[in-house]
Amino acid sequence: MSGDTVVERVRALAEPVVADLGLEIYDIEMVSGVLRLSIDTPPGHPAGVTLDSIALVSRLVSRELDHNDPMPGRYTLEVTSPGLERPLRTPRHFHREINKVVSIRLHSAVDGRRRLQGTLLRADDRNVVVCLEDAGYEMTVGYADIERARTVFVWGGAEKPGKSPAAQPGKSPANKSGRSTEEVAP
Question: Which CATH number fits domain 91-151: 3.30.70.890, 2.30.30.180, 3.40.630.30, 2.60.40.10?
Fold first, then answer.
């Protein structure tokens, strides 16, 4: 029985359970006796996966796997979220992350570059197109040339809680005219 067959069997058993909870299977891997099931919210969903969701999926999928026994021998089930900087291994992964910053490591250098970082502009079944941050031009890369890829978490410019001008000592919020409402001593 090949590893792909096991992954396909596990996917067939786990997908309905995960979908019933309003989640999706992001990835399934079988490595050294560990069956890793990564779950995620559907694309465009405002919130991520909670620990409660991970625990529930773990219990329900474990029960399903015990009942149907899709693979021989012992294994450990690990249910996770793909994380902020998620691995990109399949065309489907790349499709989900269009317009996000990605980091790609190539098997061998292309145009003198082995590492690429930039905004993922397009992805189809054979290639991805990335606008390189440092060079400012687009580069097309075939999946066969990619050794490893992941999304890159970009820290936003959102203010930290309690750091708005209204919350700072000695400062008061602007009124509707846009001018400060602070009293000025004569």
Answer: 2.30.30.180
Q: What is the pLDDT along the chain (186 residues), one digit of tens a residue?
A: 445 688 899 999 999 999 999 999 999 998 888 999 999 998 877 778 999 999 999 999 999 999 988 887 889 999 999 988 999 999 999 999 999 999 999 999 988 889 999 999 999 999 999 999 888 889 999 999 999 999 999 887 555 555 544 544 444 444 443 333 344 444
Measure the CA–CA gap between 103 and 101, rounded to whole angstroms.
7
Contact 98, 121 (CB under 8 A): yes
Contacting residues for 82 by C-beta, under 8 A, at least 6 apart: 26, 27, 38, 40
CATH 3.30.300.70 fits 3-80, yes or no: yes
Which amino acid, 164? Answer: S
Residue 77 CA to residue 98 CA, distance in Å, equals 30
pTM as predicted: 0.70
